[in-house]
Write a structure and sequence with these properties.
Structural class: mainly alpha
Oligomer: single chain
Number of helices: 19
Order of helices and strands: HHHEHHHHHHHHEEHHHHHHHH
Helix content: 55-70%
Number of strands: 3
Shape: globular
Radius of gyration: 25 Å
Strand content: under 5%
Strand order of the largest sheet: 1-3-2
Distance between the termini: 43 Å
Largest sheet: 3 strands, antiparallel
Number of domains: 2
Length: about 475
């Protein structure tokens, strides 16, 4: 009775509690709903501020500014040759190195340093990938050999205009499926095989259609990185004829280069939407909500093999839903502004404003992966082929992950992730506004046409912060 009575008293004040929480289930002192509401309100406020600011002031604020900085033009062939040699070394490590993905440099380089780190570097520094692309040098060598011994100075085929960005769409969709659905995308030998096969296909396509045409329209990563680079505040302009070999640096408002970019065709619009759908579904596919839809207990996650079909369908559904939502939003804005005849052109122009949102989700979603797996990558290069080497004297060292258990550090990480999502949407609102005032001379029509898109951006901010905070399984 001494134990029963206190137990009954405590039970009378019981309330529901989470049985389990995982790496994204961060419990903050300030309720998560407040962060979500605050982020959504910040995006809405940015739209309201832009709506009342004079258009001339907005244009001046986003105008390009010169900087008195020059640099010598980078020899892209030499840089590409070095990158190609590094790629060959990584493939070798994938085939003969350590089978543990966290100790092999190939998966850590591809999924952490390249896919996460290089994407963020593109948005800050500009088109780094154009210099480091590992396929330029071998293609130029192949072209030289064909010209020397076969007399082929030009590609046999011209890239068809009707193809648009469709090859890039297919390539990126395959990449997204491999990352999110495949059984073992980080298995070193499996990843090495896929990477080698993609390299072969890329070189053949470049030989058939030419380097520039294929990389600008057909090769999905060059297309993706090229678009992301237009978000960079740094813009390197072509060499001045009076000073050959030197490039001039200009300072842009982040994303201002997108305003001067020609409207995308339908294939380009779907490509941009696919990049956002991929990172969004990557955040959704292990949430308790998504697994619950399939009758899966998130506390007993059955593994990727049990969800391959539903995740394949889910990825396509996420893409289709975003495409339909975007199309309806732009169509409604055009109707409100009485710009019906310009709808097709508006769809291609406003798609560019989605890129800051895609980048913001990318940075927020992968931040902790970069912080942890970046350390694993450094340690993997200490013994890249699994031969017991100690190249950097790091043998016996282990990644430091204690910061994920410290409340103050976790609070900073959460704030940084939330800021990435909110700032991505705010920049998107600004870019959409600048695109609108360039295309719509009537001030009232410009504001009215943006209302549906701004409303969707506010709602997607809420959704993104919910994805960031909700627990996941696996």
């Amino acid at each position: 009775m001494r134990w029963l009575i206190p137990a009954l008293a405590v039970g009378a004040f019981a309330s529901p509690a989470l049985a389990h929480t995982s790496e994204r289930g961060i419990v903050m002192l300030l309720p998560t709903g407040y962060y979500m509401a605050g982020g959504a309100l910040a995006v809405a406020a940015s739209f309201l501020v832009l709506m009342f600011l004079p258009q001339s002031l907005v244009r001046t604020w986003a105008a390009r500014r010169d900087m008195a900085v020059d640099r010598v033009a980078t020899p892209t062939t030499a840089a590409s040759a070095v990158a190609c040699g590094f790629l060959v070394f990584l493939l070798l490590a994938g085939w003969i190195g350590n089978t543990d993905p966290l100790r092999n440099p190939l998966p850590l380089t591809v999924w952490t340093l390249w896919w996460i780190g290089l994407t963020l570097a593109q948005a800050v520094l500009g088109d780094v990938w154009a210099v480091l692309n590992p396929w330029r040098a071998p293609y130029r060598m192949l072209r030289w050999l064909l010209a020397r011994f076969a007399g082929m100075t030009d590609p046999p085929w011209a890239y068809p205009a009707s193809a648009g960005y469709w090859p890039a769409v297919a390539g990126f969709l395959g990449f997204a499926w491999f990352e999110l659905v495949d059984l073992a995308p980080d298995n070193p030998s499996r990843l090495a095989l896929v990477t080698a096969a993609y390299t072969g296909v890329t070189l053949i396509a470049m030989a058939l259609f030419g380097e520039r045409a294929w990389l600008e329209r057909g090769e999905c990563f060059s297309v993706f990185f090229g678009l992301v680079a237009r978000l960079s505040p740094l813009a390197w302009t072509a060499p001045d004829p009076t000073h050959p070999g030197r490039w001039r640096l200009r300072l842009d408002f982040p994303g201002a280069a997108l305003i001067r970019f020609e409207p995308l065709p339908a294939s380009g619009v779907l490509f941009v939407l696919l990049t956002l759908a991929t990172v969004s579904f990557d955040g959704l596919n292990k949430t308790f909500w998504w697994l619950g839809l399939g009758g899966i207990n998130p506390l007993e996650f059955p593994g990727r093999s049990a969800v391959m079909t539903r995740n394949s369908v889910g990825l396509l559904m996420a893409w289709a839903t975003l495409a339909a939502l975007y199309g309806l939003t732009v169509a409604l804005g055009a109707r409100l502004a009485r710009r019906g005849p310009a709808l097709a052109n508006d769809l291609g122009a406003f798609a560019l404003s989605i890129l800051p949102i895609s980048l913001g989700y990318h940075a927020a979603h992968y931040l902790t992966v970069l912080l942890v797996n970046g350390q694993y990558a450094v340690l993997a290069f200490n013994d890249p082929l699994g031969q017991g080497w100690n190249l950097f004297g790091l043998a016996g060292q282990y990644p430091k992950v204690s910061f994920l258990s410290d409340f103050h550090t976790v609070a900073v990480i959460w704030a940084a992730q939330a800021a990435c999502i909110v700032l991505g949407h705010i920049v998107a609102v600004l870019i959409a506004h600048l695109i609108t005032i360039d295309r719509c001379r009537d001030a009232r029509a410009a504001v009215v046409s943006q209302l549906p898109l701004a409303a969707v951006m506010v709602a997607y901010t809420w959704f993104g912060l919910w994805l960031l905070a909700t627990p996941i399984a696996g």
